[in-house]
TrEMBL record, chain A:
WD repeats lie at residues 119-152, 172-215, 266-307. It comes from Solanum tuberosum (Potato). Residues 330-349 are annotated as: Disordered. This is WD-repeat protein. InterPro entries: WD40/YVTN_repeat-like_dom_sf, WD40_PAC1, WD40_repeat_CS, WD40_repeat_dom_sf, WD40_rpt, WDR18/Ipi3/RID3. Keywords: Repeat, WD repeat. Gene3D superfamilies: YVTN repeat-like/Quinoprotein amine dehydrogenase. It comes from the Eukaryota. Pfam families: WD40.
Automatic annotation (TrEMBL), chain B:
Residues 1-13 have a biased composition (Basic residues). Keywords: Nucleus. It comes from Solanum tuberosum. This is Pre-rRNA-processing protein Ipi1 N-terminal domain-containing protein. Belongs to the IPI1/TEX10 family. Residues 1-23 are annotated as: Disordered. Residues 149-207 form the Pre-rRNA-processing protein Ipi1 N-terminal domain. It is found in: Nucleus, Nucleolus; Nucleus, Nucleoplasm. Its main location: nucleus. Signal peptide: none annotated. Residues 499-856 form the TEX10-like TPR repeats domain.
Length: 448, 884
């Protein structure tokens, strides 16, 4: 337990954001006035909290709020063009992506608040968004039942997008109803994606092959999933209040009580499970339920270790934050921001409503360094190629390389023996000198 | 004889020395005295059975008494007839003793394969039959590797045999082999194709006989259809099935079919294609000159075209842009080689083919011939369309093909002839599949013409036909282009007449009924996709909205009180689920559709699973704002009030006959309660629902439904109660009746085994009422008063002429009231509550006492006794209450 972890939870009713230490159970500040939609709560790079807000159906614009860690009040308010449902930021906290109710995905730069890109991703409202582990892909699920994988390189590269036949990497449309949650495993481009839907199924997709690997039918609608770090199982929180454990790596037993691939469930007679999260080591499972409780389960013995009471109303977001990053990043302030001085804390300016074409030059100047992650992805491709080249070379020229090494060794030997010779020479010379002087001295003495 | 005698007498007279030996010619020396008799005499010995045969008693023999071993030896006999007989004998043996085949499979094949290149036609034929009917079917599930390799060496040998007959037969054998072991083709593809090429090119002379050519080509078609492009989908579905069972991250051992290198095949096919085309060209003079073309030539031509089609398809697939599907090729071939050969093919080789198109003889034709030509034309068009995608073509050529496509789609369909129509449809299906791709490429004028033609096909084909299925998939592809990565312009979409297409779907659903689940599934899938992608403010959305007026008939229609269920109720579960999913995507679900859904839901035949799915989907639809709150509430209220619960048969003998649906109803109630309470603040929801619920309760409903409503009330209510006084008054009128119904319906029995169960069921019904009492003491008091009036008041209020009949009724009613009270008293929490209602209880006891002691009522002694004992029990129970 070197790094303390925090659990933050929010609900659709105006109950604020609760914050607890996962391991000690101590309650921290409660951040006020937050009514988030499902998947609408995120911690931006460990520096501050951000949440999209549920809006009246009539209101045309959405709302995203920021809280800094040490103040319960809302610090920054921004009003995007339409209501934003899911909100996610990448690990470093440089971008925020939001999914709109009309199916648009918005991508903002956190430091300047600029809307970098907005594109029509789905036919209906986006319900969940997440980045993959190397932050190069954005995965979105939607009410129209499709899960799409977007490459950020493609999103920003107009030329590439023009050439490609579709703007996304993959579109999985086997779900027949709204996608409720999506998680991704480790392994970059070879990862698996697990998606849950209101059609009572969870589907496992392969990111490398772009196809369906497994379809698991549950006894109730699954609203939340959490993937075990070892990818042996995943946890699926159902509307019937049970957390099902579904196998990824075991051979299915057809005469199972619960259904194919379902190993069992955790249950505490609660109302529907709405959100799940795992601690970083995978030993604790945190579930949020409609009855306003956050339960912490031990994944090994399936017991509840802790219960946090958040609110009367339902909870719909639970996020685990590593506190170390939070502490270390607390000091990093982008001092050029005007808002910083106004609020006295280090929060970036509000997000822009629409992409501003007047700032085109400025925009380019800002985005420059942001291409970095993209390049690193490319570099990894190159490294694979060069690696295979090297292997080839090694196979082909194995003998010459060995000969070279041999020569090198021989050269070394030679130089060493040269040194030795020199040493001997000097020794001989000094001895000779000594003898001569001795002799002469003796003679002198004799003479004397 | 006489003379002889005289002579012998004379000789005896003479002396021995002068004996004159006279010999007569023709006489024989008498045998010497000591001569051995060398004569051999023999007699035929007839045995009942031969000794060798008796040794074979336990062995498997043919009709002629030969064992498998002997028969196998005879297969290499120099006499052709013997060889043939041996093969037939083997067939006998193996048919009679299938175990024999399992044991000696490889040995048998090892011996038999030598006969593949037998000189005698009849022997080869017999071998073919033997392999086809007995040996291959028997070996199907075994390891195929050794059989293949055993056979293939000899088949290749035979393919290069001097005699053309043998060669042709070898192709036939290979054909047979891949029928049973399709996976082996790719291993030998290169060599086989080489052989085909040889025989088609260099030995044309032998192939003058159309029958032979036909056979060879049929084999070629089969081989080519095993190339990766055509069987890709099957393979995918298979591997998908496997994947559902195993573990995800496991190491995959089975790489054999993926590791084959196709580069050699590509080269071979490049050589083969011109040969095929030139073969086809040989037939063209035939078409133009002859008045009547025989069937075999037609078959040959169609096989040739099919082979060309398959080769082209393979190339297109291989060089196609979906390269990650095609990992079999070495990377070098992927980019350069294939695309180059693809280009060269389209440009030069097939030019000759295009020149022939369309095949239309100028003389008058019979119907059948017309159909055949039509078929050939269709295949050529297919080849053309395969190639046309992504490559530049001369406009004139394109024009010619487009004209053909349009005319074949639109005109010929309604030519009237039934048989011809069916025939046409079969071939048109393959053409229809190209339409989405085609309209991507052609000019706007052609686009609308072809779409028009397509519309006529779509509308005119019968709902059950496979043509309809094909059309549906085309519509899906055009409407939702992202699945196949083609982007139709929104403008193009406007050209398509949405109203007809989308409006057609629900009608089609009703027409299809429940007899064609496959079609229904396709229609529903399309409907779902359209719904998912319908943008809320575009025309498709409106059309989708309009759809629900027709789709009602699919679920259920009510007219004048009679309910007639649509095909939905009888379809398989997965299709039902799919259709339920479609409901979510209606932008607005109207009352009438909800009504018909509700009547589906309360039908007994509906599976509970589907019932819950419908409820879930409607709940989600409500949350997404697709259902008005009033409709939503009334749907659930209808469900609660109309759902018929069969009582559980407590009698163990009848238990198996009727499975009670009380459990289902209980879950329905639970779900309805939780969802209705989610509508908003409980206080407001309660205010909204209070009146409706009370109205429903006051109608005389079965206990289960009333139970459901009470559950709903207590979910929304809180402690202390928020129910208005009026509500409580009305409840106090209704609830006593409910109690009595509960007690009467679930009668107490003496049987020990069922006692617990009865107790449990009664508690189940009473528990929600206890909650109500807990929240409002007034209600409890009022109810006790009403009960007291049951005991006391009824007798006086009775009309005189009813007295006799109702007296019995009255007494039993009193007994029920008592048992209700006992139940209430039995609950610990209620005991505390009852303390505050002492007066009411006392009143009840008093009125019972007066009743029992009064003399004026006609009451039998038995009844009186029962009331007496009930009174005693009740008094005892009440007294314990007081002491606590």
């Amino acid at each position: 337990m070197t790094e303390p972890e925090l659990v933050i939870a929010s609900s659709p009713t105006d109950a604020g954001i609760g914050c607890w230490d996962l391991h000690t159970g101590a309650e921290h500040l409660r951040y006020r006035t937050c009514s988030s939609p499902s998947h609408g709560l995120t911690c931006v790079g460990g520096r501050f909290l951000a949440s999209s807000q549920l809006r009246e159906t009539k209101s045309s614009s959405g709302s995203i709020l920021y809280w800094s860690w040490n103040k319960p009040q809302v610090e920054v308010k921004s009003f995007p063009a339409e209501p934003i449902n899911p909100l996610v930021s990448n690990n470093e906290g440089t971008y925020i992506a939001g999914g709109g109710a009309s199916g648009e995905i918005y991508l903002w730069q956190v430091a300047t608040g600029k809307l970098l890109k907005k594109w029509h991703a789905h036919y209906r409202a986006v319900t969940c968004l997440l980045f993959n582990d190397d932050q190069s892909l954005l995965i979105s699920g939607s009410e129209d039942g499709s899960v799409r994988v977007w490459s950020l390189i493609m999103v920003f590269d107009d030329l590439l997008r023009g050439k490609a036949r579709q703007p996304y990497e993959f579109s999985f449309s086997e779900h027949s109803l709204k996608v409720t949650d999506v998680v991704i495993g480790y392994g970059g481009a070879n990862a698996i994606i697990v998606s849950a839907s209101e059609d009572r199924t969870c589907k496992v997709w392969s990111l490398s092959r772009g196809k369906l690997l497994r379809n698991i039918v549950f006894p109730s609608i699954i609203d939340a999933i959490a993937l075990d770090p070892g990818e042996d199982v995943f946890y699926a929180g159902g509307r019937d209040g049970k957390i099902y454990i579904a196998a990824l790596n075991a051979v299915a037993d057809p005469n199972n009580n619960y259904g194919l691939h379902i190993l069992g469930f955790l249950s505490e007679q609660s109302k529907a499970i709405t959100c799940l999260a795992l601690s970083t080591d995978g030993s604790l499972l945190i579930s949020g339920s409609e009855d306003g409780m956050v339960r912490v389960w031990n994944t090994k013995n399936h017991n509840i270790t802790r219960i946090f009471r958040h609110a009367k109303g339902p909870i719909n977001n639970v996020v685990v934050v590593r506190q170390s990053s939070l502490m270390s990043n607390r000091g990093t302030v982008n001092s050029q921001m005007p808002s910083v001085k106004r609020h006295g804390v280090s929060l970036p300016p509000p997000l822009e409503k629409c992409a501003n074409s007047a700032d085109e030059n400025d925009y380019k100047a800002v985005i420059g360094p942001r291409i970095d992650p993209d390049r690193s992805v490319e570099a990894s491709y190159i490294s694979i190629q060069s690696l295979s080249n090297q292997i080839l070379e090694l196979q082909r020229q194995g003998s010459s390389a060995a000969a070279e090494m041999e020569i090198e060794r021989l050269k070394l030997d030679r130089s060493r023996s040269m040194q030795m010779i020199q040493q001997w020479e000097t020794k001989f010379q000094s001895l000779h000198q000594f003898c001569v002087t001795e002799l002469l001295d003796g003679e002198k003495a004799g003479n004397a | 004889m006489v003379k002889n005698k005289a002579q012998s007498k004379k000789q005896q007279k003479r002396g021995v020395d002068f004996k004159k030996i006279r010999r007569k010619i023709g006489r024989k020396l008498p045998p010497a005295q000591n001569a051995t008799n060398t004569e051999i005499k023999s007699k035929a010995i007839i045995l009942p059975e031969q000794s060798i045969a008796s040794e074979k008693a336990g062995l498997a023999v043919s009709k002629k008494g030969l064992t498998l071993k002997e028969l196998l030896q005879q297969t290499s006999h120099h006499n052709a007839k013997v060889r043939k007989d041996a093969l037939i004998g083997i067939r006998d043996v193996l048919l009679k003793f299938p175990a024999e085949l399992k044991l000696h499979k490889l040995a048998v094949i090892e011996k038999l394969r030598e006969r593949i290149s037998d000189d005698d036609k009849l022997v080869r034929e017999a071998l073919y039959q033997l392999l086809k009917s007995v040996i291959f079917p028997g070996c199907k599930e075994d390891n195929k590797g050794p059989i293949n390799s055993l056979m293939m060496t000899y088949i290749f040998n035979a393919m290069t045999h001097m005699a053309i007959e043998v060669r042709l037969m070898a192709f036939k054998f290979f054909d047979l082999l891949i029928q049973y072991f399709p996976s082996c083709f790719l291993l030998y593809a290169e060599k086989i194709l080489q052989n085909y090429e040889d025989i088609l090119q260099k030995n044309k002379f032998y192939l003058q006989d159309k029958g032979r050519l036909k056979n060879a080509l049929a084999g070629l078609v089969r081989c080519l259809s095993l190339l990766p492009c055509s069987n890709q989908e099957e393979g995918d579905s298979l591997s998908y099935n496997d994947a559902t069972r195993g573990s995800l991250h496991a190491f995959d051992l089975d790489l054999s079919d993926k590791s084959t290198d196709l580069s050699g095949v590509v080269n071979r096919l490049t050589d083969l294609l011109p040969v095929l085309v030139s073969c086809f060209q040989d037939f063209s003079p035939l078409i133009h000159s002859m008045a009547h073309v025989d069937v075999q030539s037609f078959d040959c031509m169609s096989f040739l075209l099919q082979s060309i089609d398959l080769v082209v398809r393979f190339f297109v697939h291989a060089s196609g842009n979906n390269q990650h599907d095609f990992q079999n090729l070495a990377p070098a071939y992927k980019k350069n080689n294939l695309s180059i050969c693809d280009q060269s093919i389209s440009a030069v080789t097939l030019k000759k083919l295009w020149d022939e198109f369309p095949l239309s003889p100028n003389h008058c034709l019979s119907e059948k011939d017309g159909d055949r030509y039509f078929m050939l034309n269709i295949v050529i068009t297919e080849i053309f369309l395969h190639l046309s995608y992504g490559s530049k073509l001369s406009p004139a050529l394109l024009e010619r093909f487009l004209e053909f496509i349009e005319s074949s789609l639109s005109e010929k369909i309604h030519n009237g002839r039934e048989a011809g129509k069916v025939h046409h449809e079969k071939h048109l299906i393959s053409l229809v599949a190209f339409i989405p791709k085609l309209i991507m490429q052609v000019s706007a004028a052609w686009k609308s013409r072809i779409l028009q033609a397509f519309m006529t096909v779509f509308e005119n084909c019968s709902p059950e036909s496979s043509m309809k299925l094909a059309c549906l998939s085309v519509v899906e592809e055009m409407l939702l282009p992202e699945q196949n990565c083609l982007y139709l312009d929104p403008k193009d979409l406007e050209i398509l007449n949405h109203s007809t297409w989308i409006g057609e779907l629900p009608k089609l659903l009703v027409l299809l009924g429940d007899k064609h689940p496959l079609h229904v599934k396709a229609v529903l899938r399309l409907q779902l996709r359209v719904g998912q992608t319908a943008n809320l403010n575009m025309t498709p959305a409106k059309e989708y909205d309009n759809m629900q007026y027709f789709i009602r008939a699919f679920y259920c229609t009510c007219s004048n009180g009679t309910v007639s269920y649509g095909p939905f109720m009888r379809l398989p579960r997965d299709i039902q689920e799919l259709s339920v999913c479609c409901l979510y995507y209606f932008p607005f679900l109207d009352k009438v559709l909800l009504q018909s859904l509700a009547s589906c839901c309360i039908c007994h035949e509906l599976e509970p699973f589907i019932l819950f799915r419908i409820m879930e989907v409607l709940h989600s639809a409500y949350k997404a704002g697709h259902i008005q709150i009033a409709d939503y509430i009334s749907f659930f209220i209808t469900l609660l009030s109309r759902f018929q619960v069969y009582p559980e048969k407590i009698d163990p003998t009848e238990k198996h006959e009727v499975k009670s649906n009380r459990g289902t109803f209980k879950s329905v109630v639970r779900a309805v309660c939780s969802w209705l309470s989610q509508i908003g603040d409980d206080v407001l929801v309660l205010q909204m629902l209070e009146k409706i619920v009370l109205d429903e309760i006051s109608h005389k409903r079965p206990v289960d439904n009333i139970y459901g409503f009470i559950r709903l009330l207590i979910t929304l209510d809180s402690k202390p109660t928020r129910l208005s006084e009026q509500t409580i008054n009305r409840l106090s009128e209704v609830l006593p009746e409910y109690f009595l119904d509960v007690v009467n319906n679930i009668a107490e029995e003496d049987d020990e085994s069922t006692k617990f169960l009865i107790r449990q069921t009664r508690d189940y019904y009473l528990l929600p009422c206890f909650f109500l009492f807990d929240r409002s003491n007034m209600l409890l008091n009022q109810i006790l008063e009403v009960m007291e009036s049951f005991i006391r008041g009824n007798a006086s209020s009775l009309l005189p002429h009813q007295k006799g009949a109702l007296a019995k009724d009255h007494s039993s009613r009193i007994l029920s009231v008592v048992s209700v009270l006992l139940l209430v008293l039995g609950d610990i929490k209620m005991q505390k509550l009852l303390l505050s209602c002492k007066t009411a209880i006392r009143n009840i006891l008093e009125s019972m006492h007066t009743l029992e002691s009064s003399e004026d009522i006609t009451m039998t002694i038995e009844e009186r006794h029962k009331i007496r004992s009930a009174y005693d029990i009740l008094t005892a129970a009440v007294s314990t209450l007081k002491y606590d």
